[in-house]
Design brief:
With 305 residues, this protein is of the alpha/beta class. Helix content is 41%, strand content 16%.
């Protein structure tokens, strides 16, 4: 039987409906949450993400501010922009463009780590600052990286709705060990009671690990890395990867790290790309911005948003 599709769009929409009500309650107190996004270099993927952020924020009543620095700006310019947003009382959340300092971009030479470390932990709604990452590692309440949170929440949804259970005792494999996705995903799964194996570039026999996984999360950024031969029948598969590949006729299309067509024939549940982890990531970003704004107003939010 083909896998059940984990509809990230629909699940995220349910989340945003609840968030919108809290935003309206804050607005009645004269406070409008605001998310600021800092951009440096032109990037097609980031541009799409930025557009989706703005649309999702508008849908729930959160202000979205785009801060664009000129190509080739210095670390000092970036630092000044971040410090300005840290000090701005009207801004409740800050997100930095991903892959800052990546070779071949106009931000090459910038230190992404330095920029992340400058973020006020209270406004780091993406959970990428060393302070928040450390809290996640310690198992303490903090803003965790939104993509990692989205992946784990969709996994919880799948196990609850497909298998009628939670993640305690589940054999989970995370492919990818990046600082802001793979590692925090593994940590959040541990906190949920799963038994976790992390695979990475030096893992010698990937299939030896993945074929025993009840939960498989792919977060590498390599199109089609996970084929049906790596998936245990009945496993829940969460595809975090977003890759743009040639679709012919000069066009491109988005695909994940998982070969969806084949893996969906053996998995019990699977996320599509697009429409899976991406929408939930933005919903988590909005939730963290709302939490930051509510904290300032001493407004009590529901325990579960």
């Amino acid at each position: 039987m083909p896998a059940r599709i984990i509809d990230g769009k629909a699940i995220a929409q349910e989340r945003r409906t609840r968030l919108a009500e809290h935003v309206r309650q804050l607005a009645a107190r004269g406070l409008r949450p605001c998310l600021a996004a800092v951009s440096v270099h032109a990037d097609a993927g980031w541009s799409v993400y930025l557009k989706n952020q703005a649309a999702a924020c508008a849908a729930v009543g959160i202000a979205h501010r785009s801060v664009e620095l000129p190509p080739g700006c210095s670390q000092e310019d970036l630092s000044e922009a971040i410090e300005g947003l840290n000090a701005d009382g009207a801004v409740h959340g800050i997100i930095l463009q991903n892959r800052l300092g990546a070779p071949g971009t106009s931000s090459a030479g910038l230190s992404e780590f330095h920029a992340q470390a400058q973020l006020s932990p209270d406004k780091d709604v993406e959970g990428v600052s060393p302070a928040n990452l450390g809290m996640v590692l310690a198992g303490r309440p903090a803003a965790a990286p939104c993509t990692a949170v989205a992946a784990v929440e969709l996994a919880k949804w799948a196990f609850a709705n497909v298998h009628g259970r939670d993640l305690r005792g589940v054999e989970a494999v995370v492919i990818g060990a990046s600082t802001t996705v793979g590692k925090p995903t593994a940590q959040l799964l541990l906190a949920a009671g799963a038994t976790v194996t992390t695979c990475h570039i030096d893992t010698r026999d990937l299939g030896a690990h993945t074929r025993g996984a009840e939960l498989l999360i792919a977060a590498v950024g390599r199109a089609g890395l996970v084929g049906v031969e790596l998936v245990k029948p009945g496993a829940v598969v969460i595809d975090v990867g977003i890759n743009r590949v040639d679709a012919g006729d000069g066009k491109t299309r988005l695909v994940g790290d998982v070969d969806f067509a084949s893996a969906s024939q053996v998995a019990s549940a699977i996320t599509p790309v697009p429409g899976g982890v991406g929408p939930m990531t933005i919903a988590c970003l909005i939730r963290n911005t709302l939490i930051s704004a509510a904290r300032r107003e001493n407004y009590q939010l529901e325990k579960r948003l």
